[in-house]
Amino acid sequence: MISAVRPKCKESGHNSQRFEMKIDYDQLRKLYEDTCCTKNLQYSYGTAGFRTLAKDLDTVMFTTGILAVLRSLKLQGQYVGVMITASHNPYQDNGVKIVEPDGSMLLAAWEPYAMQLANAASFATTFDEFYAELVKLVEHEKIDLDTSAVAPHVVVGRDSRESSPFLLRCLTSTMASVFHAQVVDLGCVTTPQLHYVTNLSNRRQREDGHATVATEQDYYSFFVEAFNELFTTYQIEKRLSVPKLFVDTANGIGGPQLKKLLASKDWAVPSDEIEIVNDKSDVPELLNFECGADYVKTNQRLPKGLSPSSPDSLYCSFDGDADRVVFYYVDPESKFHLLDGDKISTLFAKFLSQQLELANLTDSLKIGVVQTAYANGSSTTYIEDALHCPVSCTKTGVKHLHHEAATQYDIGIYFEANGHGTIIFSEKFHQTIESQLSKSQGNLLALNTLNCFAKLINQTVGDAISDMLAVLATLSILQMAPTDWDREYTDLPNKLVKCIVPDRSIFQTTDQERKLQNPAGLQTKIDSVIAKYPMGRSFVRASGTEDAVRVYAECEDPTKLDQFCNEIVEYVKSSV
Ligand code: 16G
Ligand code: ZN
């Protein structure tokens, strides 16, 4: 295996005497030359990993595959996950992101490596230029490439895009042949399934030296069991509190996966209570087209394929890789009502706070909600004033919210308004509940409810399927109709606008993106506009996923909202 050890990279001027790349240089070179066809494009690893037109991703897939292997080697051969997806983007796009062994996003300190490797391959004029960059990284991180001691392990998954099988081949091309990695291909899965399976595989390996990797089937069994357990605990008939739930799966991978879950032999809710629409994941161009969470949230209207039925019916939309969900209903006057990420987190906060109180645990376990600046001001006021829960605000992007929820609270509920989110339960939470239950102390119903509810949540990442089940369970237990849920608080009228500017990088923010530091003087102008509108709030930030600047505004008077937002947009345009 360690056939052609190349001691030094003479051509690239790399002259380390200490270091040997114990990999097959010729094989790597051949695969590089065969695979990396896209050249001279600058790639950046953002909040969503790499994402762009699928036709431009061969080189990036090649280098990301290598980086995943290196990450696994750095972590003593633990399973590292890689997901090929472009989430809610149109069907022509694709993307890739790396998942840590515990199921969280790639460690921030490694994101620059992902970029360096991709851009080295993209701009290198010879293979050795790229190779030198690889050597530099391996040396810097002191990674032992001798795979005879520890083999790297990688779990790969992809959403339903047509381009994914080809990109998967680019991704995995070097894994086994050059780095002797054990690669587990999950096939088509949702992003949260990939996170969950990566986490479970490592837990099994750690806890009982389990040699077998976790599977998609484990995911279905686990969540169906958790759902059933919660219903049994409550002794509620296995019927939902809503007569019908319509699920728009954006013609993405969520459709077939949800069908598999509902087809599980143990799934007990009558099949006519949940109807899946927009489930044509085999028609590529329909993906996210006029449907899905992003479409519904942005346009505040029903997606294609759905027409209003009874006001008691509840609807929800996933995005293309099913890590995001928003709910909605239509009232008797045919008015559309969105129940977005803010509404989901407030529903969970209300329910879990009640259960904590019933279990007499409010003093020992800290519950809190994590939001971003996009959270509607009314939701923040409601959580603080009506639920008496603390609220944290972080920068946009799941990893920021996740970190805050995991480090600040025992029950950390986090959601972005766009529907990305989950709940993190701390070690202390599990120990406390377990200890109380084992002593049969306190309100057993509340303790069991908390215990079961924690199982129903995919704690590795926001998960449309798991979040959907948790919302259904909560509404059933609280006996709430969609209108009751919506009535808890009323959103302030709000608007989100995209502004194209010559260089978005000059828009630098502080205070969790709520204030601009640059361009100089612009924030003062924005503040003077905000002061004119009762309950006014507005902020400006550069998008991390598009070449644009986003302007958010909310105020009390819906008739003034356009004017408010336009004034800010005008200042933004005149500042560049
Ligand atoms: C990415 C983020 C999402 C965030 C969005 C903001 C992840 C997995 N995804 O899709 O959380 O809301 O970017 O996009 O972190 P923007 O920067 O273009 O506004
Ligand atoms: Zn997504």
TrEMBL record:
What protein does this entry describe?
Phosphoacetylglucosamine mutase
Recite the lineage of the species.
Eukaryota, Fungi, Dikarya, Ascomycota, Saccharomycotina
Q: Which residues bind substrate?
A: E416, A417, N418, R541, A542, S543, G544, T545, R550
Which positions fall inside the Alpha-D-phosphohexomutase C-terminal domain?
A: 496-570
Q: Which UniProt keywords are listed? A: Isomerase, Magnesium, Metal-binding, Phosphoprotein
Q: How is the cofactor bound?
A: Binds 1 Mg(2+) ion per subunit.
Q: Which residues form the active site?
A: S87 (phosphoserine intermediate)
Q: Identify the domain of life.
A: Eukaryota
